[in-house]
Design brief:
homodimer; alpha/beta; five-stranded parallel beta sheet; four-stranded parallel beta sheet; 14 helices; 38% helix; globular; disordered C terminus
Amino acid sequence: MRFEIIARSPDSAARAGIFHTPHGPIETPAFMPVGTQATVKGLLPADMAPIRPQCVLSNAYHLATRPGAPMVARRGGLHAFMRWDGPMLTDSGGYQVFSLSSLRQVDDRGVTIASHLNGRRRRFTPASVVKIEEQIGADIIMPLDVCIGPDASRSDTEQALERTYAWALRAAAAQRRSDQALFAIVQGGMAPDLRAQAARALAAEPFPGFAIGGLSVGEPREITDRLVALTAAELPSDRPRYLMGVGEPDQLLAYAAAGVDLFDCVLPTRLGRTGYAYVSGGKLNVSRAVLRAERGPLDPNCSCATCARYSRAYLHHLVRAGEPLAARLLSLHNVAYLVELLRSFRKALMAGASAEPRSPRRCLVPSPGGALRTG
Amino acid sequence: MRFEIIARSPDSAARAGIFHTPHGPIETPAFMPVGTQATVKGLLPADMAPIRPQCVLSNAYHLATRPGAPMVARRGGLHAFMRWDGPMLTDSGGYQVFSLSSLRQVDDRGVTIASHLNGRRRRFTPASVVKIEEQIGADIIMPLDVCIGPDASRSDTEQALERTYAWALRAAAAQRRSDQALFAIVQGGMAPDLRAQAARALAAEPFPGFAIGGLSVGEPREITDRLVALTAAELPSDRPRYLMGVGEPDQLLAYAAAGVDLFDCVLPTRLGRTGYAYVSGGKLNVSRAVLRAERGPLDPNCSCATCARYSRAYLHHLVRAGEPLAARLLSLHNVAYLVELLRSFRKALMAGASAEPRSPRRCLVPSPGGALRTG
């Protein structure tokens, strides 16, 4: 799986790339909607097709717990199960293993936890998680990592990053399928030197891409900014960089400028379910009385199906009435908003980038149709 | 607004008709999905377009309470507000006035109730409800009626049907718009003679259609069967008959055979939200473990988007995982199931009916494309 960089910003570390996967190209920088349980909450692949997200996420821990990875495999894999034919990525569930279960035992070889659904104890190791992800069948897979809280001690942080490093290598050794890209995850808590150390150690290994984990977990924004920039700079420039779980619009733009290529976050659908919409300049509380009579769309600059068809007055009514359509229409808009934000960033970058030598066969403009994302 | 009967069954009171409205023809018998608050719960007009429901319901009381009928009018009326361009019908909300509010005072001229949302007292009269429905702008509108429980006394039943009769005439007198068909509602409780009396009294008036209200409210099925057949037989055969709030599949077929033309019910979406699907032969509890590995669709005879794309295993997973997509995909299937049930009934009726004289210009087969239902 090849990553091409087709343009670089003359002013920042930003770049435009194409990561080629068995289910089509991922044009970066890109925002990836999150479909934790084999569905982006409330949205069908057919709803998302016009938005053209480059990649959709799911979660190995969640799917292993329900309906079970062998079950997904028997239904033809995750793409067939949820009917999304574009590129997909599974997070290992390292974060969920550490956040959802109150009962867990970590040792050098893996983690034993009680299921958040039924309390049944289950062992996860780097190798067993790769096996799960091979059954699920996403294009990009993440290894089991050790997640810590923002207040972890230095020694806990060191132990976590060492285990995360060792587990990434063990995951790579366990990999059997050659059609999945196994990324490595950079941890290192809030300590800049440990972040750099973790990034450098993994950068020396032949992973096809790298993720930055454990950020945006409650730390001040300046810390996030600094650690993202520092970590991205330590990672090989010829491989994609994926910042996990960060999705505020201004952060997407800032971190794309710092050289991050891939982003995911549950915020657009979570905000949609709670009655909020991204608009130019901020978030709109759609239940506010001032929207009651507004005939215009959520955002006049947005071309999503919600903005193309429905007035603020109607959406306000749906939110106030507690109708399920409210969550759906707002989620659709919010996902479209973030996808389009980075698509525009990429377009501007490609229009403005000129200093880099380029091969003539490389495409300078994203094709209008993009890949066919739904089957 | 003209009602054409284009075929009659040789074996029953069933007929196939076309009710012409300003937003297109309603081919009867037809099941009408319910969009109480200006949305069929969880479904967009675009989702319903392939199902081709002949008419969609909404509710004048609910819309008058929120967002308010003048607000709907200012947004261009209900069709524009919710973006459904096909025929629509508003129930007056007589049923809601009597079921949702614990504080109500009924007199000969109308009813005063405390809003179920904010407790504010509001007066509804036959004329004020027609005014609300003219602001909302559906193609078929229902007059304010007096609803009673299944255990009402004979004298209460008599008073209710007398008021309902008087209010229907007052509603007709208050009507200003000529592009809406005001039906009359037959009440009469569980007493066959009062039902017949109510039907006969209204049948003598020039209403363009008649509804049968106050049934399927808890009475035994044999009583419903008998009262539907009896009431339908008393109503003019040249005008459409609408049975309010009845939606069990076998009842739709039985009552279409008794000469009912229009049906509505919240059941298909309510069942969808609680994890049930209509299938040939009954209702399927989609959360049952036996579905966990089933690769086939909900119903192999169904051509809805849910059945065309998603396995029982996936739908089972969505229901178990509590995902909003579950309610949406099951609701879509259930609405499609009932719409198709009566469409097939109509088709069979038209293929089998031969004894009736027909004008050569009348279409014997519903056009495959049907009317364009969404804009």
